[in-house]
Structures are given as structure tokens and as C-alpha cells.
Amino acid sequence: MPEVSNEVNIAMILDDAYLMCSLCTIYSLKKNKKKNSVYNLFLFLNDVSLSAKRLLNKLSSYNFNVMMIDASVERFKNVSRIVHITQTALIKFNLSGLLSNLDKVLYIDGDIIVQKDLTDLYNMDVSDYYLAGVRELRAEKKYKFHKLVGQKYYINSGVMLMNLDLLRKDNLEQVFIDTKLNQPKEWKCMDQDVFNYVCGAKIKYLGVEYNNPCIIFVDSGTTIDEINSFYNTKYKTIKDLCKNSYILHYAGPPKPWLYEIPYHSKLYSRYLLNCKVPLYEKPPWFTKIFSVSNLESKTHTVIKILDIRIKIRRRNSVKG
Ligand SMILES: [Mn+2]
Q1: Which domains does the chain have, with CATH numbers?
Q2: How many angstroms does the Cα of residue 217 sit away from the middle of ligand 1?
Q3: What is the pTM of this model?
């Protein structure tokens, strides 16, 4: 049996465009971890401004170690020239080489909210697998993505517990990149098809609570019965599933910080509000899309995200 530890190694890939929501993801990691869990967060920075780096530099705290690693464009120059492909996806393919000292890592996207401590997830045994992930209901049922890549199932690559040891041993870094460069035209995803195609039967399937694509469920009209029968779960409602999820993943275009989405925009803005990014450090685009005011109402804080106004009752407010 692999050793159980309270250390959790996490990898994220950041660029300036995704900075705001990535900060929110990082804040949620920090807020909802157990005190004794030690998180080592490896941030791979692609095209991140100096002011953003300064901001990220301040995120380390007790039992929360943030490491910033420049994932230079140079390294991928030749690959990028051949095919139009974002460096972000390529960095994901290279994690086993970039994190050569680690046996395993939990990769997470920057459009997620982590609601619980991740030690149990991290300690799951993946020694016989390349990685562990959560199957995608809609991708399998509606789009038949698993058939496109010739597999039985199909996972979402936004949350993956990666067995770096085995990936290195079988030299999959190169296989991922070669597969991407020669992929069939029908493959529509940036990196997901490659992970599913290459890792196939050596993927361990996790419960939906570890990567809950909440808005996709709502947006596509998926019922809780469909969800329960697909994932073999017993949730009463989608809200029940969301409340009990370790990870909410805002996959797909309707992001809760761009559109008003019941339950999620409010939940998201609470995290955003508490990121406590000092005002003077905020990049110019930040204040353009996000503002907080206590002056508009005696009882509520008003948060504006683009054109959405969200009112949150202040804790010390007088009822009236
Ligand atoms: Mn995502």
C-alpha cells in the first residue's frame, strides 16, 4: 500500500487571462483545507505579468506552500509552430517531467471551487493507473466522445490525480505530444481527447463529487435521476450534490462570474469577495469587471461582476 501522508501536491497552470478565477480557486483551496494538511501548490505560469506574480507571491502561508514556475514559451516553440495549440495544454502533458521529484500530483483547472480538504482524494491509490478522473456524463451520452477516442469511458481532464511515476516510466510525455500533433480531425478537445486516448484502460474513475460539472448539468437539463444512475450515487437533488461536492468545476462557457446563475454566482462571488486582493494590486481589468460596495444598502453588500448585481446580507447588519 502506498504511504498515507498529510501532504498534498497540487498543480495549476495560470495565465493573465485566467488570473481572477485562478485566484478564487487558490483561495478556496486554502480556506477549505484542514489546518494540518500541508498543501504544496505548483503554479505553472504562462505569460503572467509582473504585478500578477507579485500578487501570487503573497499567497503562501502556514502549511500552504506556493511555488511559481515559469513555463516558458521557448520550451514549446517548435511544437507551437507546427500546429495551433495553446501552451497551456502542452504544459499539462509535461507535468511528469516538470515535476520530476514528485510521485504523484493533483492537477486542477482554474475554473473550480474546492469545497473540502483534498487529503483523502490525494491519497487514493493510483499505483496501477496513469491517472484518476471523473467521467463526463454529457460527453459520453450526447457526444459519444469515448467512441471518438476508442475507449469505453471518457473523463474530464480539469481534475486529474496523476501518477507521475508511471507516466515517466512509460515515457507518456512524448506520447501525449505526438498524439496531439497527429490527432484525427474529429477530436474537438484541447487535451482531454489525448489523455483519454492514451491512458484509456489505465484510468481510475472517481465519484462525481470530485469534479462536479455543476453548470453543465443545469444547462443541459440533466436530471438528478440521470446523474444518480450514471455515477451510481444517491443524491436527492442537484443542489444536494453541489453542497456535498469536493470540487465544483465551472466547465463549459456559462461561467458564474460572467452570467447570473442561480446558487453558483452567489457562491462564487462570496469566494471572489474574500480573495482579499489588495485594491492597489488589482490589475486594471479587475476593477472593470468586479466591484464591491457597502454604501448602496444598509443591510447588504452589493457585488457587481460585469453587469450582474448580487446582494449579500452583511453579517453584522440590523434586520429591517
Ligand atoms: Mn475547466
Answers
A1: 7-208 (3.90.550.10)
A2: 14
A3: 0.85
